[in-house]
Amino acid sequence: MNKKTTYILAAVIAVLAVVLVLLLLQNHQQRENINAMAETMEFEKEQLEEEYEDLALQYDGYQITIKNDSLADLLAQEKQRVQDLREELRITKATDAKKINALKKELATVREIMVGYIHQIDSLDRQNKQLVQENREVREQYAAVQEQNQSLTEEKTKLTEVVSRASMMEVADFRCTTLNKRDRKTSIFSHIQKLQFDFAILKNITTEPGIKTVYLQIRKPDGEVMTKDDGTFPFENGSLPYSLKKDFEYSGEQTNEVLYWPVEEILQKGTYNADFFIDGNLVGSFPFQLK
Fold first, then answer.
1. Fewer CB within 10 A of the end CB, N or C, for the chain?
2. Is-contact 220 233, C-beta < 8 A?
3. Residue 94 lies in a domain
């Protein structure tokens, strides 16, 4: 082998050595790039998994608070979609860049949908708060009206009572006179044969005029009502016995009346009471002595 051939062969070997070194360096760099890319893709996959998990938790939180059935159903569907995408991401290899990028886009879409739901939830929440406030105001107004009506009812009742009291007749100027058998006044207890009751029915222009009936209860000192025929008259929700009664015509002006009780029993000495009733009302009560 001549020198020229030797030089050429040495040059070729040198070139091949350089090429081999360059190829080795390039292969090493490619491996490093692939490893770096794999680490990057693995990191992106982990980040993407965390984002899907956070999104799923957000759906859980809104599902608890939402009261609208239709919106709750839509949230449940989207939550299931997120769970399906999470499962799909879990089984996807980190080196599958195409699939991971697709799942990124899906995540962006799901987020946009959630933003729309959040706006609806906020809007419903504001409406609910407004309705609660309006309901509270309506209840307060209703309570105020009820209180006002109650007050008006009480005022009406009081006014009715006042008018009723104003229209009640009144007995005054009562006097009991003891008479003997000749209808003459006597002060001797054993000679009393008749009791004469004089009284005045006072003027009252608010009372409806017409034929009225006055009932007199004579109560003995022991409280028993003196009666002749067990007659009764209506009073409040029942009836009471009376001793004497008399019909009279009332025009609204004062009228003087007289009633007589014939003594047919043994009288007791002591304090008696005369109670007068007209139109179902007690219109006068007077004590008197027999001794």
1. N
2. no
3. yes
Query: Are the C-beta atoms of 181 and 193 separated by less than 8 Å?
Result: yes
Same domain for 183 and 120: no
The pTM is what? Answer: 0.48
Burial class (CB in 10 A: 0-12, 13-18, 19+), 59: buried
Task: Read off the amino acid at residue 22.
Answer: L
> Degrees (nearest 5) of the Cα angle 210, 214, 220?
175
Residue 114 lies in a domain: yes
Q: What burial letters (b/e) apply to 143-176, b meaning 16+ CB within 10 Å? A: eeeeeeeeeeeeeeeeeeeeeeeeebbbbeebeb
Same domain, yes or no: 12 and 112: yes
User: For 150-153, which contacts have Cβ atoms below 8 Å and span 24 or more sequence positions?
Assistant: none
Vertex 198: Cα angle to 194 and 202 (nearest 5): 160
Whether 95 is in a domain gets the answer: yes
Percentage of the chain surpassing pLDDT 90?
36
**Res 123: pLDDT:** 67
pLDDT(161) > 70? no
The pLDDT value given to residue 130:
78
CB 197 within 8 A of CB 258: yes
CATH number at residue 253: 2.60.40.10
Model confidence pLDDT, tens digit, residues 49-86: 677 677 667 766 666 566 556 666 666 676 677 677 66
The residue with tokens 């409040």 is 236
Q: Which residues form the domain of 205?
A: 171-290
